[in-house]
Amino acid sequence: MSNTVSLKLREKLPVTESQFAFTVFCEDFIYLREHHISGIPKIQELVEEDGQLYVIEEYINGVSLKEVLDERGPLPFQVAANYMQQLCLILQPLHTLYPPIVHRDIKPGNIIILPSGKLYLIDFNSAKEAYGVKSRDTVLIGTVGYAAPEQYGFFESQPTADIYAMGVLFNVMLTGQMPQEKRYDGPGGYIVEKCLQMDPAARYQSAGELLVELRSGKEKNQSKFAQWLPPGFRSGKPYFIALALLWYALIIFMSAAIRSSETKELMSIPYRIGTFVLFIVMTLWFGNYRDVWSKFALSRSQNNIVKAIGAILWGFLFLIVMILMISPFEQ
Predict the structure, then answer these.
(1) What is the pLDDT of residues 9-47, one digit of tens each?
(2) Range(s) within the chain of domains with CATH label 3.30.200
(3) DSSP of 185-252, one letter per residue?
(4) Full-model pTM
(5) I need a surface site. Which of 38, 148, 192, 247 has the fewest CB within 10 A?
(6) According to CATH, what is the number of the domain 63-216?
(7) Of 28, 105, 137, 162, which residue is the catalytic one?
């Protein structure tokens, strides 16, 4: 069984831009037809006629996530996180293309759920290829509330626009309300917060990066207090905790082992404290405590090599600064 969807160009676009947009628009659907992605309805046929593109695609017999939320209200965290992971798996191959394909209209009404629990993402009418050469989107495309700030004309939409919408979606699934009405602050709330950052560079940079975060389960089932535990303790895994205890004990021992002459013993106390703080700061930094890397250039890059280089460079800079600060107390 199939259904037919009629797609039209937006009349407000200039003629030359409309022609370009229509070409890219068609190319997106051609790609989806030739490269079937699990979780996206199969495209059976594409027909272009009089400036319109008709898409004949597989019919998905399920209920929309909007209907589920309207009927049941907020979902349990594990269910919502499972839907988020499935959505990431759908978007991941699109976000890794060059240029990436951005859906730009992720919302409960565009998500179909089968009785088995499998999720489908539909309605790619707003999808576009992100070339990264334009400073802004030409027109608002998407749904108010779910559309990222850049879709209002501040920047050109990149995969991070989908990440923003997924943050709104995650919040709605967990609270039943939009983020501006009620922001989810339970376990895993840090994921919602990062998705909803105003600056696209401060969000997860792709569905793949968000998927890694969701799968890692970091802080998912932890209390707010546990989320502030230092590196090594938040995982809850015995061997990590044992190694962390050993490391922090070593830091204390090395800091306390600093000796000075009796006449200058008091002067060595600030140096011991400074040394202890230095080791702790380096531990927090290289442990990416509270996702601190995302606040600094390079270390927040999507490219793992650039991210590692950034983390090392910033860590080295912090080390030099700390050494300079405590060196006057050295005996």
Answers:
(1) 333 333 333 443 444 456 666 677 777 888 888 876 666
(2) 2-58
(3) -STTHHHHHHHT-SSGGGS-SSHHHHHHHHHHTTTTT--TTGGGSPTTTTT--HHHHHHHHHHHHHHH
(4) 0.56
(5) 38
(6) 1.10.510.10
(7) 105
